[in-house]
Amino acid sequence: MKDQALPSIPKVSKADWEKTPPSVKAVVISLVSSVEALEKQFKELQAENAQLRAEHELLKEKLQRNSQNSSQPPSEDKTKGFKAQQKAGSRRQRGGQPGHPGKGRKLYPPEACERIENYYPSQCHHCGMRLAGEDPAPYRVQKVDLPKIVPVVVEHRFHQLGCECCGALTRGWDEAVINSPVYGERLTGLVGWLSSVGHQSHRQVKDLLCEVFDIEPI
């Protein structure tokens, strides 16, 4: 059997190790290996413990932080003496209270409506009796929408006619119409507003004119 090597045991000489019986050597080597493993594990636990202590100190610092010793707002204070103030409980129900004037959307006057549709109950919901008459203050609900927008196109036709006397051709002409912009003042103003105030790109303005106003830009 091959002789077992001398482990790193202080105060044990090579001569003493050679005199040790093989069975004792095996036990000693096993014990030394166990001790080395335990020492390694102990060092790892020490490192983990140091990390846990650092995390504990960080959490402790966060818990002690408040609006008086840091830049956090008072509403986030959690320590004693710095609790955020809470509103006292109210017995009132949520929403508008009885007698409180409503704040609904402002209604358009009747003359501004394209049409007014009236709904009348046909019978009493309690006894079933047929109903008739007028309500001087009906409940009003208005639905607002945009009309279909179509471009106003004016076509100018300059005709050419031949002279019966000399045969020369003459075309009707209007210099102001020929040299004026293709787009009118309102459309030009809208494009300028979209580009400047609305910060729309050239492509976005073209898409808007095409999709909303059915205008193919030049």
Task: Detail the topology: elements first, then pairings.
Elements: H1 14-19, H2 22-64, E1 160-162, E2 169-171, H3 175-179, H4 185-196, H5 202-211
Antiparallel strand pairs: 1-2
Index terms:
3% strand, 218 residues, mainly alpha, elongated, two-stranded antiparallel sheet
Structural write-up:
This protein has 218 residues and is mainly α. The protein is built from five helices and two strands. A two-stranded antiparallel ribbon has the order 1-2. A hairpin with a 6-residue loop joins strand 1 (160-162) and strand 2 (169-171). The N and C termini lie far apart (102 Å). The mean pLDDT is 81.
- Largest sheet, spatial ordering of strands: 1-2
Approximate helicity band:
25-40%
Order of helices and strands: HHEEHHH
The fraction of residues in strands falls at under 5%
Which ranges are low-confidence, i.e. pLDDT below 50, for 5 or more consecutive residues?
none
- Radius of gyration over C-alpha positions, nearest whole angstrom: 48 Å
Could you report the average pLDDT, rounded to the nearest whole number?
A: 81
Biggest β-sheet strands, sense, barrel: 2 strands, antiparallel
In terms of quaternary structure, the protein is single chain
Through-space gap between termini: 102 Å
Overall shape: it is elongated
Structural class: mainly alpha
Q: In DSSP terms, counting alpha (H) and pi (I) runs of 4 or more, how many helices?
A: 5
Number of strands: 2
